[in-house]
Amino acid sequence: MSSKFWYLTKQSFKKKAGSKWFIGINILLAILIIALININSIIAFFGGDFNETTNIIVLDQTDVSYPILKEAMTTIIKEEELENINIKESDKTEKKLTKDLKDSEVVVVLNNDTTSYVTAKIISNEKIDNTTYQYIAQALNTTKTTVGLIKTNTDPNLLNELSTPIETERVVLNEEKSVDENMEMIMGTVFPTLILPFFMLIIFLVQMIGGEICEEKTTKSMEIIISNVSPKTHLFSKVLASNLFIILQGLLLVVYAVIGVLISTKGQGIEMTSEMTGIISTIKETGMLNQLISLIPAALILMVLSFIAYSLIAGILASMTTNMEDFSQIQTPIMLVLLAGYYLAIMAGMFDGSTLIKILSYLPFLSCLISPSLYMIGQITMVDVIISIVILILFIIAMTKYGLRVYKVGILNYSNEKIWTRFLKALKSDQGDRFLSPWRCK
Question: In angstroms, rounded to a whole number, what is the distance separating the alpha carbons of residues 294 and 217?
Answer without folding.
Answer: 44
